[in-house]
Amino acid sequence: APTTVQAPKVETSRVDLPSEKVADKETTGTQVDIAQPSNVSEIKPRMKRSTDVAVVAGEAKATGTDVTGKVKVTESSLEGHKQGTNVVNPHNAERVTLKYKWNFDEGIKAGDYFDFTLSNNVETHGISPLRKVPDIKSKDDNIVAVGHVLDERKIRYIFKEYVKDKKDLTAELSLNLFIDPTTVTKQGKQTIEVKLGENKISKEFDIKYLDGVKDKWGVTVNGRITLLDKQNNKIHHLAYINPKKSEMTSITINGFFAKGGLSTESTPTVKVYEYLGSDELPESVYANTNDQEKFKDVTNDMSDKLTLSENGSYKLTLDALNKKSYVVSFEGKYNENDKELLFRTNLHGYHANYGYYYYYPVSLTWDNGVAFYSNNAQGDGKDKPNDPIIEKSEPIELDIKSEPPVEKHELTGTIEE
């Protein structure tokens, strides 16, 4: 009878967050990220910032030959996050799932390998710095093939001694693919493609992004946790301030941990960049601040306006936005004993001559959170792979009432993976 081996499948789980009420005259939104256990080495970074990447423990060394031609694809598919729709919103923890079923020809030896490649609009890790795909294991917990991520888009499986003298080997894989915010910077149609030898899977998806929280004048706050390194307790947050280049006066911007906090042993790094580009900032919430043609580091220029507290919070004051867009980069080491992190970005400012108000106050709030818990993995063997960290956002609809306008919001979030 054929011997079937299987890569572990990840069980879906959910955690309901308690409701949070936000004060009057305030607009709020939230993003929640999922953090999984980090127990594997990572091969190569997607981001150009070398500090985003954990130390590589070992390369994927194949001592045998490429046997991709001996891998027969019996079933393959690309599936959206929700049945019946091709819409994928990465800010709502939505992703694409790659599914394979394989038959392996005879004559495969230990050290032999096969590869498949992903199109440049997807990756395998989310905001984790770790690159890892699940190993293929037999039902008796033997490793059949070890999975590696090479050059970001290439997945390689290297066979182990288990395959010696085996016949009729089959395997299946279910792998989450995440929309790459560095290449898919705007909403719209994207064709995702995966190639394994002569086999090619291709499907079009409609990518949607959330646009943060905004007032009726277009002043907007958005943000995203761009890195969560559980091995080093490192977090990086990016905040968009006024990406629509609107106007406002007497602005105060606060960034702080509403839940959890920084390690007392480290000092965070906060930098402020003025966006010089004529086009809008990426809808995916991504900023290559090394691009000096588009981003000007104004941190030193704002030294008298930027203050950093001992608890890791920052405060930035501006006399006026002057139709300028800013990006605030926050990087630090969080307290490893905290079970939950919630980083909040709040903007408070005034609009002149609105109705019978000489100065009308507005407050915008955007939350980015991380909940730490382990996945439930099942399949052949006891392996619990390190799964990517997933972004999650919840848009909050604006509810305006009477004069003066009163905006009340109640947030019930769901963490899903």
TrEMBL record:
Compositionally biased region (Basic and acidic residues)? 11-27, 380-411
Q: Which intervals of the chain are annotated as region Disordered?
A: 1-30, 377-417
Tell me which residues make up the SDR-like Ig domain: 90-189
A GO BP entry: cell adhesion
**Highest taxon, organism lineage:** Bacteria
Q: Which residues form the Fibrinogen-binding domain?
A: 215-368
Extract the Pfam families matched here.
Big_8 (PF17961), SdrG_C_C (PF10425)
Q: Which UniProt keywords apply?
A: Cell wall, Peptidoglycan-anchor, Secreted, Signal
Q: Where in the cell is it found?
A: Secreted, Cell wall
Q: How does it sit in the membrane?
A: Peptidoglycan-anchor
Matching entries from InterPro entries are given as: Adhesin_Fg-bd_dom_2 (IPR011266), Adhesion_dom_sf (IPR008966), Fibrogen-bd_dom1 (IPR011252), SDR_Ig (IPR041171)
Q: Name it.
A: Fibronectin binding protein B
The source organism is: Staphylococcus aureus
